[in-house]
Amino acid sequence: MGILGIGVDIVHLPRILSLVQRRSAEKLAKRILSTQELADWKKISGKPESQQAQFLAVRWSLKEAAYKALYPAIIPTWKELTFHPLNASATMKPCLVYNPASGVDCNLKLHSSVSHDGDYVFTSILAEHLM
After folding, report:
1. Under 8 Å between Cβ of 107 and 127
2. N or C: at which end does the chain have fewer Cβ atoms within 10 angstroms?
3. For 121-124, which contacts have Cβ atoms below 8 Å and span 24 or more sequence positions?
4. Sign of CA dihedral 24, 86, 119, 10
5. Angle at CA 122, nearest 5°, toward 59 and 75?
6. Rounded-to-integer distance, Cα 107 and Cα 102, Å
7. Does residue 95 contact residue 110 with C-beta atoms inside 8 Å?
8. Across the beta sheet with 95-98, what order do the strands follow?
9. Residue pair 104/39 in contact by the 8 Å Cβ criterion
10. Percent of the chain with pLDDT over 90
11. Could you give the domains of the chain?
12. Distance of alpha carbon 105 from its chain centroid, rounded?
């Protein structure tokens, strides 16, 4: 096992809220979310814009951090990365999963951390290559 890379990102929530108001939350969601995330998105689409923006900001930031951790060995697309938040029974830590469109197993584990504070979302990713 070896560390492939570390990536971090910070998102200012008003920036995402501005995108949502200018272009629509649905458009942004369809652009950056995986199929599974889009299904989760539809469950909150009736909620206030601030909640929608936070949902999108977390995934945006995680995927940016993952890109930084994986590049140049792997160049993921937005939709190839899926965030699995803490589940209701708290039996699984939040994690980011890479599902390449090619279907090739990359033997990766993406350790993720998300922190919220006021108008900011900070994320970090440690990409581990499993031998």
Report:
1. no
2. C
3. 121/10, 121/11, 121/13, 121/54, 121/57, 121/58, 121/61, 122/8, 122/9, 122/10, 122/61, 123/8, 123/9, 123/10, 123/11, 123/58, 123/61, 123/62, 123/64, 123/65, 124/6, 124/7, 124/8, 124/65
4. negative
5. 50
6. 14
7. yes
8. 2-12, 120-129, 108-117, 95-98, 81-84
9. no
10. 71
11. 2-129 (3.90.470.20)
12. 20
**6: CB partners within 8 A, 6+ apart:** 68, 69, 124, 125, 126, 127
The C-alpha atoms of residue 131 and residue 126 are separated, in whole angstroms, by 16
Q: Which residue has the tokens 């830590």?
A: 93
pTM of the predicted model over 0.90: yes
User: Would you mind telling me the total number of residues written for the chain in this entry?
Assistant: 131
Mean pLDDT of the chain: 91
